[in-house]
Write a structure and sequence with these properties.
This protein is mainly alpha-helical. It is built from 9 helices and no strands. It has one domain. The protein has helices at about 1-20, 25-55, 60-70, 75-85, 90-105, 110-135, 155-190, 210-225, 230-265. Helix 2 (about 25-55) runs parallel beside helix 6 (about 110-135) and helix 6 (about 110-135) packs antiparallel against helix 7. Residues about 1-25, about 190-200 and about 250-265 have low confidence and may be disordered.
Amino acid sequence: MKQSGTRAGSASSAADEVHDVAGIEPGSVRRFVTAFVALSAGLLVVGGIGRLVVFDTAVGHAEADLVGWIADHRVGLLDTVATVGSTLTDTWTVIGVLVGAVTILVSAGHSRSAGVMLAGVALELSVFLTAGAIVDRGRPDVEALHSVPATPSFPSGHVAVAVVLYGSLVRIASSLGEAGRTSGRTSGRTSGRTSGRTSGRSPAGVRIIPAGITVVIALSRVYEGVHFPTDVVAGAALGVGASWGASYTAGSADRASLARREDRA
């Protein structure tokens, strides 16, 4: 009986270690699904309201007129700026940034942060495809600057993933920097030095980077003639929601991991 209990305890401990390293908890999957359902339902409600009072009304016609006017008054310099802006969240750019960031984080022992990034992008993409297919808003009827994506116009996936991807990078960098400052202050108090107070410090203005990138991409997508203004606003809202959903998904894992460590202690 004692040996059986010991084996069970060892198996439980081993499973806990796997969960700690991978950052995956049974509750995390449930929370991810909950976040997906909540975000999809919310975006579908917004899309339904849009169909009733925006897309095919005077507001929608005004949007179409604005996009058409912009398309008729494009200039070379802004064409280049818009092209570069959209490239920041093209499919291959997102894949490259995500794979690179996740690889670095996992290699440095921050697998949970990597998991949050992956969850955020996965949540954004799944909700974007689901809601977009159901709402099914057509693209602006103008000559696009470049090729037009096969997906519907609402919401803007480029804008949504910009919020999730670049926002996650800044939040993770800030979190790791704060951890470094805390460790430095503790070390400084122990050794009598104060140099740790500036360890890991980053400019406060760095937090505006994801907002700035999102604005540039949103304006670029409208300028290129592939989205209406309300599409990029909905995309930004989806990005914020997906970022929350990723944090919500990881929250249970963080608490459960902490509880297990306390139990083992």
